[in-house]
Every structure is written in C-alpha cells, then in structure tokens.
Amino acid sequence: MGFEVNEKVSLINAQLQAFMEAHIYPREHDWNTWTLNQDNLWQTPPWFDELRAKAKDEGLWNLFLPHEYQPWSPGLTNVEIAPLFETMSKVTWAQAVFNCNAPDRGSRSSGLTLCWQAKFAVLML
Questions:
Q1: Based on the structure, what is the number of domains in the chain?
Q2: For the domain that residue 83 is a member of, what is the CATH number?
Q3: Could you tell me if 62 and 124 are in contact, meaning their C-beta atoms sit under 8 angstroms apart?
C-alpha cells in the first residue's frame, strides 16, 4: 500500500507549514509562560482565539472532517490527513488552533451515524 502525498495534500500542508512558521512557532514561549502560571489553569491565552480565527479564515479549519462534510472541510481520508497531523503535532497545542484536536478525529467520528455526524459538524462551525 502506498502512502504517497497527493497534490491536494501537498498544497494544504504547505499552507499549514507557512501558518505554523508565521503564527504557531513564534508563540511557543508565550504558551509556555502562560500555562506555567497557576492563575491560568483551564484557560487559554488571550491571543489563542485570534489564532483560531486566522486559521479558519485561511481555510485551515476542520481538516479532520471526511468528504461527507464538504464544503466545511477539504474531505481528506485518514491517509491524506496523516501528514497534516504530523505538521500540526510539532507543537502540542497547535491541533486545537485548527479545530483538529482530539477527540475530533477518530473516536468522535467513528461509530456515529452519518445523521449524528452532520449534527456535530453544524455545532462545530
């Protein structure tokens, strides 16, 4: 079985890498400083939602959703999304910026009927 990255995934991954370079990596120290402060337990930094909005505006949102959810996602297969998760996983909190953090891929989508999945997709928008 081949796991070659197709052109669609290569383009999304290039866009994702550029976003990581411009917005995620520069914030790693800020994230660590924020999370080490005990007064910030269970909170996200004030700039976190801004990053999520930028990711959504750039079309890097809900990448985990399968093809049944187009136009809300690029409709990638598990094999296609793997290199994207590899890129996002270079920073522990980055998947949440793209709305791709656990349990969104896998346990949430498996075992649910298409009807229920559609209801969850609308709630995630």
A1: 1
A2: 1.10.540.10
A3: yes
Domain that holds residue 23: 7-38+45-124
For residues 110 and 73, give the distance between their C-alpha atoms in angstroms, rounded to a whole number: 17
Q: Please indicate whether residue 71 or residue 115 has the higher confidence score (pLDDT).
A: 71
Question: Is residue 18 one of the residues assigned to a domain?
Answer: yes
Q: Which of 83, 82, 78, 85 is nearest to 100 (CA)?
A: 85
- The reported pLDDT for the residue numbered 1 is 58
Peptide bond into 103 cis (omega under 30): yes
Percentage of residues in the chain having pLDDT higher than 90: 62
* Cis check: omega of the bond before 66, within 30 degrees of 0: no
Tokens 């094999």, residue?
79
